[in-house]
Amino acid sequence: MPGAAPDPRTPPYVLTIASSDSGGGAGIQADLKTMTRLGVYGGSVIVAATAQNTRGVEGSHVLPTESIRAQYEAVADDFDIAAVKLGMLATVEAVETVADCLADYDGPVVLDPVMVATSGDRLLDEDAVDAYDALFARATLATPNADEAEALTGVFPDSPAAVSEAADWFFDRGADAVLLKGGHVATDDDTVVDTLVTPTETTTFVNPRIDATATHGSGCTLSSAVAARLARGDNLADAVRHGIEFTRATLAEPADVGEGAGSVNHLVGVGDGWTPDTDAPDGDD
Ligand SMILES: Cc1ncc(COP(=O)(O)O)c(N)n1
Which CDD domains does the record cross-reference, listed alphabetically (predicted)? Predict the structure, then answer.
């Protein structure tokens, strides 16, 4: 049944292929926290280990392509991958390796074209951008923010005509759909308009703007949430709506961690977290 709660003993398996954020707010860490919160079992292929906190990116070590491939093969050999999310892929070699790994995968792929961190640090080599074409061809959904869309397509998507022109660029490269995120676009009425475009349909999601400075991790969270919901059987528009709702919740109650701007809060609504069953009789097993 679409979107039905999965049996926790047989959760859908969702794979993130992305990079580690040592600070825990974005990257693989945000992806796995999001997947857990959305009721799917998350696995990871780590492309690069960034040395990062809420202030910025101090360094990045990209794993050898053999290691990226070996991680993917170990996962693909053993698990039934219900959806893939792609995040920071760092270099042209990594992008090509991931495209090659996914050649035989035919499930949904949510592609977040991560290029520059919220902190302004570059996360994708300039020469890797062209290599992305092979991945757009595999994308069920690409999720660029307005700056990424402009860097890729040359069009800043701040009007319906510009959104449609930018979307065509992704369709020309074989993407099935694109979510042009509106968080970086100023509006007169303090709303954020996210636009889901397919070759036949355009759906807008209009929400009040959340006045957040702790936005670190929001793009990773949204794309992972959409992948999780697709894995649970949602159609694309429902998956995107759920993804936006979860991301808005994590933005509305940011985590006051670190000395920088903080990050989105995947603990929103968790309360005390898991607690032991205090009714169980002591020492009786
Ligand atoms: C490893 C990694 N992946 C993605 C991002 C982008 O996240 P943001 O733009 O929210 O900083 C990041 N900073 N680090």
Answer: HMPP_kinase
109-111 and 81-86 strand pairing: parallel
Ligand 1 in reach of 217 Cβ (< 6 A)? yes
Residue with tokens 């977040």: 112
Give the separation between CA 69 and CA 52, rounded to whole angstroms.
24
pLDDT tens-digit map of 199-244: 999 999 999 999 988 999 999 999 999 999 999 999 999 999 999 9
- H or E element in which residue 141 lies: strand 141-142
Among 52, 61, 62, 118, the mutation site with the greatest number of ligand 1 atoms within 8 A of its Cβ is 118
CATH topology of domain 13-147+211-253: UDP-N-acetylmuramoyl-L-alanine:D-glutamate ligase (3.40.1190)
How is the chain split into domains, by residue range?
13-147+211-253
Determine phi and psi for 47, rounding to 5 degrees: -90, -45
